Amino acid sequence: MSTPVEPLRLLLLADEPEWAALLRECLLPLDGSAVLLTAPNWAAVDTLFSADRQAVVLATPALQPAPGRCELPTILLLDHEPDTSPTGVSDWLVRDQLNVDALRRSLRHVRERGVLVATLQRLAEQDPLTGIANRQGFQALLTTRLAENEGRGVALGHLDLDNFRHVNDALGHQCGDRLILQVVARLKQQLEAGDQLARLGSD
Questions:
Q1: What is the pLDDT of residues 69-123, one digit of tens each?
Q2: Class assignment of domain 8-124?
Q3: Which of 48, 87, 123, 198 has the maximal Cβ count within 10 Å?
Q4: In whole angstroms, what is the distance from residue 77 CA to residue 135 CA?
Q5: Residue 203's pLDDT is what?
């Protein structure tokens, strides 16, 4: 039995009711794979949707969330084809060109771009050998943890493997990698829920 796919939530920020009518008409053939929700502006719903990975914002220029205020992918709704590509958005749709195929293409583009960005961020913050956070990932984790706890109640430990270079020199880098993996596995067994590991350097 296949797991039901959660529908994509399209959050419409537009004063003109024509946009809602056009989008609802385009969504009919999509068999419930996306639902349209409306809001007066981003500030009214940011706490509900800011972390929703199944949501996409569709906004007119007047109601487009301010830069840095919304991390969700945004599709700009325009009355006319722009002379230059709009900045700060994932894609755009033009009113007189809006149809089922255009909406489907735009949503697919936005989702694929979102997956790519998430993958690149994960790769940038993850140690390729161990799968734990690298130095950049550690900085992000630490910043988040300090913000969550207002700088209190955070314990930080640092572990260094003495003479690790001798293992690489005497037995080769593959043995050194296996040693690192064993150390990480043993440390993970000692962690409690919410604890994090990061690898800041070779050892």
A1: 888 899 999 999 999 988 888 899 999 999 999 999 998 888 888 778 777 877 7
A2: alpha beta
A3: 198
A4: 40
A5: 62
181 close to 129: Cβ distance less than 8 angstroms: yes
β partners of residue 91 = 75
Looking at beta carbons, which pairs linking 138-141 to residues 24 or more positions away fall under 8 Å?
Answer: 138/198, 138/200, 141/196, 141/198
Q: In whole angstroms, give the CA distance from residue 142 to residue 6.
A: 32
Q: Three-state SS for 73?
A: coil
Rounded CA separation 52/54 (Å): 5
Q: Phi-psi bin for 118: left (phi > 0), alpha (psi -120 to 50), beta? A: alpha
- pTM for the model: 0.62
Extents of the domains making up the chain: 8-124, 135-190
Beta-sheet strand order (sheet of 55-59): 34-38, 8-13, 55-59, 74-78, 91-94
Q: Report yes or no: 99 and 106 within 8 Å, Cβ to Cβ.
A: no
Quick one: average pLDDT of 1-24? 84
Name 127's Cβ contacts closer than 8 Å, sequence gap at least 6.
Answer: 133, 134, 137, 198, 199
CA distances in angstroms from 55 to 52, 102, 106, listed in the order given: 6, 18, 14
